[in-house]
Amino acid sequence: MKGLSLITLSAVFCWVSADIRCHSCYKVPVLGCVDRQSCRLEPNQQCLTTNVYLGKMWVFSNLRCGTPEEPCREAFNQTSRKLGLTYNTTCCTKDNCNSPAPRPAPGLTLVLFTSLAGLGLWLLH
């Protein structure tokens, strides 16, 4: 019984002291993550993802580790009136939990598919 308790306690200690890493990059359409890296999360900080939109169209994402100087603060539909951009920031604390990018809006996918189909029909004509 002592051996089982010691193994369990060791496993919990290793899990708690394990490094938590976050994705770190700027993700842009077509190119994907530019300057992809990994950062180690500091104690009491969170991984963050900021997605930037122009209307409903995704423009880019910023993924990084929060720091004491710039901690993660969740925000939804924060708007820059000068540029007309909307920012959504999410925070998380699990290993590699900040996703590389949002999915494109379904309407944008439909417009792209329809445009490509129209171009294909025009070329065949």
From TrEMBL:
Keywords: Signal. Residues 1-18 form the signal peptide. InterPro entries: LY6_UPA_recep-like, LY6G6C, Snake_toxin-like_sf. Residues 19-100 form the UPAR/Ly6 domain. This is Lymphocyte antigen 6 complex locus protein G6c.
